[in-house]
What we know:
With 594 residues, this protein is of the alpha/beta class. It has helices at residues 41-46, 113-121, 129-139, 178-187, 221-225, 280-290, 296-301, 343-356, 379-391, 402-413, 474-491, 513-523, 574-593, and strands at 4-9, 29-35, 53-58, 76-77, 90-91, 140-143, 166-169, 204-207, 233-236, 241-248, 254-261, 267-277, 293-294, 308-309, 315-317, 321-329, 367-371, 417-422, 437-444, 451-454, 465-467, 500-505, 525-526, 557-559.
Amino acid sequence: MKFLKILILHSTIHFIHSTFIKSPNQIESFDYLVIGGGTAGEVLNSKDNRSLTHAFSLDASDVGCSTIRSPIDWNYSTIRLPNAYNRSLVYPRGKCLGGSSALNFMIATKGSKFDYDSIEKLGNPGWGWETFDRGIRKSENLIYKINNQTTEFNFLEKNHNQKGNIKLTFPNYLFKFWKNYFNSSYVLNHNPRALDTFGGQINGPWIYPSTIDEDSKRVTSETGYLNQPRSNLIIKTNTEIKRLITKRALNGKITIRGVEIKSNSKNLIYAKKEVILSSGSIGTPKILEQSGIGDTKRLSKLKIPCVLNLPGVGNNLIDHPLLWNVYELLPGLTSMDDLSTNLTFANEQIDLYQVKKQGILTNSVNVIDFEDLNGFLNQDEIQEGFQIIRDHQHIPNSVDGMAFDVNLDLIKHGTPMEFILVNRRSLEMKPEVGKSYISIVICLQYPLSRGSTHITSKDENIPPTIDNGFLNHPFDVWLLSKASNHSRSIINQNTWNQVIKKEHLPSLKVQSLDDFNEYVRSSIDTLYHPIGTASMLPLKDNGVVDPDLKVYGTNNLRVIDASILPIHLAFHPQLTVYAIGEIGAEKVLQSLIR
């Protein structure tokens, strides 16, 4: 079989050795150009490229370690959000090979069957539970040890794969207060402790695995998928895209001939077959708009010639808003806060990690509880919530059309709220010597609010605006307020009497619904889960890509990243984005056979 040339263009820093070049001039053209080396992009780049030919991947990065607000972070911020007291939120996105999988909290969750099937209901045949389940299984490599600790972790082997590229492990260290949470949630009639949420049902608390390997090291799409050099795969890092090179074909559609990259002189790289955008929910619409693909009215204001009018580009940005409820521990109890206030404890934990790969430094976020409305609201409250939705249909910057009905079904029958037990204070709090905290982080899973991201200039050096639309819809505010109040009920159970000293946030001054609404607006933050900005929807519904992930009106341009998800689901999207990469790679390979 002919070997295809693949080039990966990535504006990133790379961590491991592969086939990297400083200039693409070593090869005049490539069969496939992959723009971006993030969570989904590296899945594409890793496929058995002997059945592709010559590929080139471009990415905008360099070399670094996993940390937010660092050289491997794009360091974005949102606009001042009008419904959150004009606060601007920090918005990290990975600027390294591995993308945001090198920055995230390593949480490995899978959505429910009901949730994934909702994507298919939006006009996307073949994009339901069976497809996502297969894609996630294909990427997954669950590693577990049979020892005394295994009994703490419920899971069913039949729901998992142990041969994929992305290693998952259950925690070596599990802070002891998880049992208090499970006990109190049971008393409050939450869903029972889940047996294994990877089988299509996610209701109830469970101890989740993390993208951490058996040596307690972070697993990213780079370490998982780019661990073997390939002669026909070229990766060019420190490369940012100016625009896609377009041409009108005889069939009336646009053909992407290649890309122009930022350099001192005009630098063009050509694609013989396909160009694949895998730059994420912020980067992908930016490149499309820079190339004249987007809303013609918006582009004309920037004096960018519109080659393809797709008003959906950059719109439908959906994100998971979160709220911290923080509780101070009784004296003598420790949490991760002690790493920054107790030098002796910190050194002990560093030694324990370096020598034995054990201790608190091996821990991620593992205790997660997805709940349906009945898990934290009574029937009168549920009816009150739906009345708010009925009273506020068709308001600006919120879900509408066919997606409204699907979103409403998710709220009614899915798990609209996530409660996460975290072994530390909130990210905005400063450390205090002698004080340790735990938190219940509350995350809204199916927001009705919608935002957008768009370029504001022809200059590709100017970052796009990001409006994640938080709290545009009053139901989102109301439900977060109710969940924050419910978090207090969890901690007020007797099982916490020997653990909690007092509530720190929102504090007992917050009592009425108006008080909680105020707390939500003044403290809302993000779980960093943007999706939807190149949505897989019918064209009439402002879709950007079709179910084959091809951009409408083009012959050879696909988007394969989180931006194609048209609606938010109850999950942390990392594993789902790996699945998108796996499924997208299959579609690219299938196109060779046709």
